[in-house]
Amino acid sequence: MTKKTPMTKEAAARIQSSEALKNGGKIEKGSFAARAMRTASIAENNKAERKESIIVKTIKCTSNLATEPNPNYPSKTGKPSGKKRGNTPKGK
Predict the structure, then answer these.
(1) I want to staple 33 with a disulfide (CB 3.0 to 4.6 A). Which of 16, 23, 46, 73 is the partner?
(2) CA distance 15 to 6
(3) Which domain holds residue 60?
(4) pLDDT of residue 66
């Protein structure tokens, strides 16, 4: 199995430049250079969307920490609420 290297905009630009020099400045629709540019553009957009998604998930996760009550806080009744829950009074 061969290792895939993602198409970058820089690599696609080199391919497109080479083809343009060979064809008098023209890039044919559907040519390898055109497909390379399209693939590079899609890869870059997907990368940006993944970064944005991670940032949004991180923000949501950290904002929930402040708003949602922790179920392991000490019991409000003063009675132990069970073993290994982190809220039984110490020494009992």
Answers:
(1) 16
(2) 14
(3) 9-67
(4) 54
